[in-house]
Amino acid sequence: MINLYNTEIESLHIHKVGNKSRKEELFLSQDPYNVDDEIRPILKEFFFKPFREKEEQFFRFSEDAALSSILNINHADFSDVHIDIARHLYNQGNHPHIKAGEVYICQLKNIITDEGSFDGIGIFKSEIRYDFLEFSKNESRLDLILKQGVSLDKLDKGAIIIQGKTGYKVLYIDSNKYDSKYWLDNFLQLEEMEDSNFQTKKYLQFCEGFGKEVVKAAEGKQAEMEFVNDTYNHFASRDEFNEPEYMNEVLNEELHNEFSNYKKDQGPKYSIEDLTDFEISNETVNDCMKKVKGEIVLDTGISIKVAKGSNAASKYLEKGWDEDKQMYYYLSYFNKEV
Q1: Sign of the Cα pseudo-torsion (323, 324, 327, 331, in order)
Q2: How many CB atoms neighbour CB 296 within 10 A?
Q3: 3-class SS at 3?
Q4: What would you report as the CA-atom Rg of the chain, rounded to the nearest whole angstrom?
Q5: Of 204, 223, 220, 230, residue with least CA distance to 298
């Protein structure tokens, strides 16, 4: 969990970073921008809003990440850090699709996480230009002036780097898909952090895969939905995960061996091959459940929607076979239409 509500922006430097492959300019601001009381809340919303709207997942720097070395070498002197960060970003601009833009680099104070309050560094980039109108008044009319600028509704790229108790933890956003490797792989050089968020998400994805490839294949879509709902209910009702307990509660005995074999075969794909006990991230459970499709789609053009996390599919829905029509059917029980 991260809370940026009381986080303050300090020592903001704004640089212009062009595309190196096109020999565009790298302009480095030597002096910080004066963040006054009028612009401060606007910048906080511009920088932080995308992180509130995105599923929270922490990353760490890869072992040979240049950005990590820059931060470690210049840890005590931010006046060197922001220059080196901007130069490092400029050096990644070796593809013609990479757009020039402004890079905002600042110190962040009072970032609240589950581990406490920490300082950090924010790196944000605006790239896309939008048309807007300004108006000029003369004696007889208003004139239109067409200009281009940055939209405060969309930050193109961003990273919040927190120096926690166990090293750097990083959150990032990238709104553009035309240069996906540029920000994440080349500039930040991140890899997933195997914390409770990671473990919870990966295990749930593994269970959904088991439901689709094994349960559905053997017993149909209704059984798959019941299994997935039971899985999410199990995770939502606990703070700690224990695999034997989960298997005994959610799986019938006939599926135990199937589950173990599927984990042996597919566990490495989900990075959970050796995972049997971990702390459950309830926030991750909620985020993952939002993406589950509680729907049975039939080849007759009819869909049956079941509320996520409910046991409605097992209590009020029955599947059968009609000999006359030679077709399957679903029978749904209800008290009244709503």
Answers
A1: negative
A2: 19
A3: strand
A4: 26
A5: 220
Please give the DSSP secondary-structure letter assigned to residue 138.
-
Indicate whether 135 pLDDT > 80: yes
- 144-164: per-residue pLDDT in tens? 999 999 999 999 999 999 987
What are the beta bridge partners of residue 276?
Answer: none
Q: List residues bridging with 320 in a β-sheet.
A: 329
**Local structure of 122: helix, strand or coil:** strand
205 CB-near residues (< 8 Å, 6+ apart): 270, 288
* Range 33-50 average pLDDT: 95
Q: Any bridge partners for residue 102, and if so which?
A: 16, 126
* 3-class DSSP string for 55-79: CCCCEEECCCCHHHHHHHHCCCCHH
Per DSSP bridges, beta strands 167-174 and 295-297 are unpaired
Q: 47 near 174, Cβ under 8 Å?
A: no
